[in-house]
From TrEMBL:
Residues 403-495 form the Adenylosuccinate lyase PurB C-terminal domain. This is Adenylosuccinate lyase. It is an enzyme of class 4 (lyase). Signal peptide: none annotated. It comes from Ichthyophthirius multifiliis. It catalyses: (2S)-2-[5-amino-1-(5-phospho-beta-D-ribosyl)imidazole-4-carboxamido]succinate = 5-amino-1-(5-phospho-beta-D-ribosyl)imidazole-4-carboxamide + fumarate; N(6)-(1,2-dicarboxyethyl)-AMP = fumarate + AMP.
Amino acid sequence: MRRIIKNSLQLNQYFSKEYNLVYKNFILYILLIAFIKLKFNKNNIKGNKPSIQINEYALNALSPLDGRYEKNISGLKEYFSEKALIKYRIKVEIKWLLFLINKNMVKNEKGEIVKISPLDLGFFLKKYLKQYIILLVNLDQIYEKFDIEIAKRVKEIENVTNHDVKAVEYYIKEQLEKIPVFSQLKEYVHFCCTSEDINNLAYSLMLTRAKDKYLLNSIDEVQLKLIELSQKYAEKPMLSRTHGQVASPTTVGKEFANFTYRANRQIKQLNNFKFSAKLNGAVGNFNAHIFAYPEYDWVSLSQEFIESIGLEFNPYTTQIEPHDSLAEFYNTLSLLNTIYLGLSRDIWNYISISYFKQKSKKNEVGSSTMPHKVNPIDFENCEGNLGLANSIANHFCQKLPISRFQRDLSDSTVMRNHGIAFGYSVVGYKSLLKGLDKIEVNNQKMNEDLDQHWEVLAEPIQTVMRKYGLENPYEILKDLTRGKSIVQKKIQEIQLKIQNYQKIKNYYFRTQASQLYRKCSYNGSYIKIFMKFSFFYLLIFILNYIMIKQYKYLFFCNIKYLQYILQVYIYMYLLFFIILQQIYQQILIHYNIIKNNEIQYKYNIIICKYDLQ
């Protein structure tokens, strides 16, 4: 008993020592963490940023789109990666299979027609009803719930076939074989199709989705910022410059509105653009289609299928769709990029003459050797990236419409680079938007320039002289003002020298040039038009979203029934749009914002009454 007690005391003493040691280490650990955290916070107070985890893949990326700029355009991978191309190929193959079933072309080994609707099962036994519904859902979800594992499996098959489209076909057949009763459908996958039938549809869908859901969203952000600046500086006077020399006054807002309106015309074309597509076999003649089913009108069926997935039918092609629509699209995109590129250069020049100031951040560096610099790097970045995007877009326009005889493969490698044209465009837009967020008007510099260049009023003065019939008004003002920098006092002397001055002495300009220019050369009707466009774009986005959501919930219905439902939605959509447009138009007319459906641009020369006597 004593031995047990002794051992227990020794054991307690041992654990007590160990506990004290652990406790002491724990206290030291807490103190160490507190010290590091305090030091870390001090470094932050001093302006040192905390350490950031560096992406090694970005450092090793061959293209800056996948490296330096990846964070700005990561969403484009959903539309233009190899994984995305596989997804859209699968989608086209499945849509085509379901279309054939719906047209009563697919038969089982007994020659019985396979029906699409669970309500009209045909040869199917009742016990297969549940499996049949599962198949329809799974076919849709192959691309709706597409993941990297599916893409990997397709690539594994491609390693054997050495053919990317055939690998997609084999993958879908694998999925059909998982339900024995439907294994008989597998030979209708890729039925009567050549690879380019699948590819051109897949690429057109990719481009459409990327345009609507990503590209136009980035463009809209720039447009909204330009509208904001147009309204904000609508009455801010500024000397204009033609040939690099001072000219008649304008306003900052009006100059922003110029670019906004120009860009909006191209955006409207992009928004309404539809890519052309074909599905007519190996050389565009429906050879295999007619041989297999001569009783069907394959031209009409092909058109019906292509238009059902939102594309424009091209009836005359070779093995490939000739890509003319792609050239048209990239011409429009290139022109839009050129407009924004010109805007970037203009703002760069305005910054160089101190008309705009840039908001600086405390810890940013402008130059590695000149501490005072705040460089317009965002506008320079925009210019460079939009130039790259245009060079690729221009190559698309020159290369893609040309193919030898009925087809050569030189377009295939080019078609894989749509993401680069989109990527550099979006990087340019984001840089432009970032730069626009940083600039602010330098009121002092603009007003100084206005007060130092009263000679620009020679134009309205000689115009008034013409109005009252004075001889040689242009020549008189030319002699007095050409090549000269004139201040306010000099303008008053010029007025006194004008013959028959008493006829116009009651018309004179405000003593402060900046007050005069504030109301010159600008009318805000542009901005109201832009807001109208933005309102209807938003309405279109919302209604399209509602229709897509409704479409997803109707996958159990017959495809014909779906088409009827969608037609009803479209008619409701158009009716709703027309009614809203008419109401809004009447409101605008009521407030004299839009008259006779034209933008009323008024160049106002304000001549204020002032009696020198």
